[in-house]
Each structure stands twice: as C-alpha cells, then as structure tokens.
Amino acid sequence: MGRVSTAFAGVAVFTSIFCPEVSAQSCPGVNGRYQPRMGSGYRVSVLATGLRQPRHLVIDSAGNLLVAEGGSQNVRRIVLQDNGQNVCAGSSSTLSGTQTNHGIALSADGNTLFTSTLASVFQYSYNPTTGQVGAGKAIVQGMSNTGTHPTRAIATSKWSPDTILVARGSNGNIDTATTDKSSGRSMIKTFSISGGQSSAHQYNTGGEILAWGLRNIVGLTEDPQFGGIWSVENQMDDVRLSGRDIHNNNPAERLSYHGILNATNNRYKGLNYGYPSCVPAWDTASINLPNVVVGSLFKPDNVPNANDCANRMTGRLHFPPHTAPLDVKFNANGTQAYISFHGSWNRNPADGYRVMRVDFGPDGQPVHDVSSKTASVPVMENGNIGGCPNSCFRPVGLAFDSKGRLYVSSDTSGEIYVVYGA
Questions:
Q1: The CATH number fitting domain 3-420, selected from 2.30.29.170, 2.40.10.170, 2.120.10.30, 3.40.50.10860
Q2: Which of 20, 57, 73, 338 is the 20 to 30 A CA-CA neighbour of 121?
Q3: The Cα angle at residue 25 between residues 58 and 419, in degrees rounded to 5
Q4: What is the pLDDT of residues 292-333, one digit of tens each?
Q5: Pfam families attached here (predicted)?
Q6: Are 404 and 421 contacting, i.e. CB atoms less than 8 angstroms apart?
Q7: What is the pTM of this model?
C-alpha cells in the first residue's frame, strides 16, 4: 500500500495509507519515544535511545556505527548485532578524546576518522576492530562564525582519497559579505588531507572552492557509482518580494550537483549558486514574475545587487521551503538518494520532519526534472506533525551498512532508527 502526492498552495501535501507490517519495532529493552509512519515497502526499528543530540553518522569497515553526538561534543561507537529481524546495539561507548558538534567521516581505507567543530576539522587514527583512536590533529582551521550556522558538514571521497570536503555556512540569514569569495563563508571547499599534516589548512586562504553562493550546506556526499558530489542546502528565511511577505512558501530548499572531484575538466567546479542575492523559487504563484518555474533564481527584497541571477547556478532538485534538509546518502548502487528533513521553524503550518527518497537514473542524475515538485518519495515521517518540533522525531544523520540498512539519527529525541527495505 502507498501514498498519493498532490500539490496545494505551493506545498507538497501527502495523503498516507500505511500497512500494519511497517510499524516501528524496538530492540529488547529499547523503547522509542515516537511511532514513525513508514512509506510503502519500508519498516523501522529503534536501535538506541538516550543519546545526546546525535547528528551525522558513519558505518566503519568492521560494521560498527559511529555517531557525532552534538550534545556531548564526542563520537559514540555502537557495536551492532543482528537480532532476528532487527539489528540492535551490542555495546555503546564514547571514543575518548574526539571532538565534534555535527560532522563525521572516515577515510577511504577506513583507518582515519575525521570530525568537525565550529572552528576546525580534526583527524584521528582509528582502529575499526577495537575502536581505539589516536590523538586528534587539526587539519583545517579558521572556520568560526560570530553569528548562526555552527555546523560544518564534511565528506571524504573514495574516488579522490586524499581529498576532504568541508562546507561552511553563512554568518546569518542574509550574509552580504558572502558576495565576495574572500569571506570564506557560504561555500564548499576541498582540501588535501596529506597537505594538512605538517601545518593545518586555513579555511579562508587554503584549499580550493568547489562551490559558493550556498547559504548553509549541512549535508554532503559522493555518489558511489559515478563519483559525483552532491549537497543539500538550507535556504533563506523571512523572504519578502516587492514588499510582500512570501516566506511561508519560498524559497525552495535544494539538492545541488558539483561534478566529479578527479575529473580532468569538472565544469561545475567553482560555480556560484546565487546566495545571498538570488534564491530558488518554490511557489511561483506568490512570486508572480515572468518565466519563473520551480528552481528559478529570483532576487528578494533587501539583498545585494542581483542583476546576474540568470548567470548563477541553481539546484538539481528542489524541495518545500523551510523543511531543512540536513543529510543526503546514496544506496550502494547509486539508484536512490535518501534525504533527511529536520523540519521548519519559519513556517506555519510546520513542514518537514521526515526522510524522503529521490530516484536516480543510469546517468547518475535524478530521474525527475529540475522543476519537479514530486521528485521525493516518502520513507519515514511523524504520525503527528502537529507535535513538532518539540514532541516528534527530527531526522539528521543518515548512513547505510553493507546489508543496505539505513540508519537515521534524531537529535531532539536522542534516538537512532534503522530503516529496512531501503
């Protein structure tokens, strides 16, 4: 059984029909706080509760789950065990000496752990069998913001194993300084891992710009089949146009493509995506400008000069405003990307608070057109969105294990879920 997607007032609305076999199940002694509703073909179990703001996740080469706990600023290692139909936590411990508030990644060979904080990216030697980590070393520094957006999404590359990607968000809702590359904000940069050994890279002056004009990238990933780099972005709040408040249904959140890192000629490298001068459309009726479709860039009120919006890059797919995508991960064969939507604070009624799926074709690109409003397929959502944001799960991090099971963190409820059927 499934769900029907419609559009109303510029917002995707989902009418749900659920089968009883996909209801949430728990591991022995683990009782989840909420009962997620699952899309057709998926079921869920609760792996762990009581974590301190779990954010991004990775599975190590020995099959253990590593969790960036934002509330404790440490990495937690959960040893996984199959328990009949579910995977459960065999043991759980903190990796002493680690620092993170959001970002976590592993090297291509699995023997180096990377984490991120407001100011730095750290590197640790890591033994996936024992869980032992070495002393931390900063390899990227100088990323502190005085305003908002303290998270630093990081990702490593299996296609370019000496490269680490680091995203740094804006200093506020409208950060006018980011019209200049030298601000070092609202961008994704790539750095040589080995190049940061003797002396840490400085974010503003080191590395290479992969993409800029991106308000706040909170999730990064590499397509396992083609090596393409993808990001999810949280767009601007409180948007006004020609004196009208259009923020409830604009601008769109977006999934953006940044090419292949080791390509001889990556035509996406260094492109500007418009922020803060230009933002992507979602509800075109409320924008009421000629030739605007979903994803078209337009200039809101009170932003820097934007005469060149037509010459800026837009996203590859777009999503409802303020749904706050925080992570994106591909399945093993690259045919599906899963996106966590943390949920809105700047919208009435609330929206987001779910995990969705986007289908990809044999060319390594989404099967839907850039202007589609129906590109995402429901996977996991709250049964009562009216209880959000305080009384619901809010998905953040995603990770796949070798058996195709999808792990989902919920920071506000301190839980880890496992989705089967992904």
A1: 2.120.10.30
A2: 338
A3: 35
A4: 999 999 999 989 876 679 889 999 999 999 999 999 999 999
A5: TrAA12
A6: no
A7: 0.93
